[in-house]
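Researcher: I'd like a structural prediction for the single chain below. Treat it as a standalone chain; there are no partners to consider.
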Amino acid sequence: MLNIYCEDFDFCDLARAFDGEIAGDCGISAEIIFIDGEKIRRLNRETRGVDAVTDVLSYPSLDGIKGKDINADDFPADLDENGCVFIGSIAICTARAREQAEEYGHSYERELFYLAVHGLWHLLGYDHMTDADKMEMREREEKILSKLGLARD
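Model: Treating it as a single chain, here is the predicted structure.
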């Protein structure tokens, strides 16, 4: 079970789409915030050394969890008030999401979901530094988006 904490958007369907994708004996949780271009540029500069606006930034709280079971006993200091292991935070730039939705010819909602899915896979240890990693991550992203009825046309 995935719990997503987001004050600005209902990601319940997204949380359900991750059912069966993450093994372990407990739920996991993540935070998603929406910010403007100026704030994401500052975060990008301060945390990654890149002075540019970007679409999404992920801040994992756990290392080395890619493909592993997430069990409460392994992360007692990372349990939230609901007994879920907190895996990290995601910041999504709404302005960039709107631009990309228009650029790619799909809805703003689809872009928000894509960026959230992308960020969640980063929190779970997946990346796209190599072609093989990129292909694995894209397959995982598309699987979740398909469950949501938001697959690419």
